[in-house]
Amino acid sequence: MTIEDSASKELKWWAVPGQFLRQELLPVLTNLRLAIALLLLIAIFSSTGTVIEQGQSPAFYQANYPEHPALFGFLTWKVIQVVGLDHVYRTWWFLALLILFGTSLTACSFTRQLPALKAAQRWKYYEEPRQFQKLALSAELDTGSLDSLSQILQKRRYKIFPDQDKENLLYARKGIVGRIGPIIVHIGIVAILIGGIWGAMTGFLAQEMVASGDTFQVTNIVDAGPLAAPQVPKDWSVRVNRFWIDYTPSGGIDQFYSDLSVLNKQGEEVDHKKIFVNEPLRYHGVTFYQTDWGIAGVRVQFNNSPIFQLPMAQLNTNGQGRIWGTWVPTKPDLSEGVSLLTKDLQGMVLIYDPAGKLVDTVRAGMSTQVNGVKLKVLDVIGSTGLQIKADPGIPIVYSGFGLLMLGVVMSYFSHSQIWALQKGDRLYVGGKTNRAQVAFEQEVLEILDRLSSQPKVEEKETAIEV
Length: 466
Fold this sequence. Notes:
alpha+beta
């Protein structure tokens, strides 16, 4: 075997992967049916992630998706957790769908859209009258000139390309931006996919229930990507200065508010905002949403004793409303006491004895006699329910949507081309467009009408080339 044969075989061995990529893999990736199928699967699983609650505890899914009877005959808590429907957007198979769809769009852009754009930027002059016969529209005039045609086309925003060597040839076009539009659309969609993947890998979701007046750091993370650790704030904290609820005249909740302060390591306030539903606090890429409320405790006093703050817990009412309660001792040895119950922050507190009998009803600031002790209820302390979310992919997603909308608008521009040839006293004019055929025909007729008051126009009833 010669050195040349050995080198040739080695070259062919290295050429096999490239040949496989071009001949086998690229046609599959750029297949329109594959792209539509992937888009449909992504839409279905995205809607599944919207319908099925994400990031909940196993007990939640066991209670809401039991095995008997199974929802739709197959959807149980086991299926949800095995398949990953409790965290759809972070499963390997959903991310694989996004990557495959993005790869398909990118391959299509390089193999179809970019070559189409390059082809649209190339042209040749028509030097013979017979060449105009293959155009969608063509006309032969015995009046008019290239100069007058050029002026008319410039007023209609055509870009003129006269032949520098031969003064009797002209080419004009407009709407090349319409050829760029599909490429921008693909870039926008790929940016959205990248933003979604980056957000799923680096974002986190947390929930905190914080009493009014307390300071906290984000610790109760319920869902997080594998690269989310750097996004969790560690060098700053948040203080709930105050939490309150506005009630309607009928006693219903109108709105609930949290006055929040962001504190640095030294405890200094670096940001401050009053949040409510649909009006969150955003700081360093972390967003705090007002989502829930509760009752953290009650402040009481016995006779002239110091003020005690006792925690209150939410009681099980079997879906009959929300009630919080606590037990208050009335003797130092804890042998006797009463129960305090409340359902909101309006200050109404119910006092029950150990037998379950209602002893008294008081409001915040009032006192009553219980077991020979003066019990004063000073205040009911509320707690704010915050949903804390960080998604570094959101700016990328928003930029992608911006590019997508821009590309869609650009795609509506028609790429129109016009050729002209001056041969003796005859002027040959023809053109074609990739869309809006009727409008283009109307425009060409108006141009010809401007060239001559009585032009001899010969139109071909053929389809416009795409």
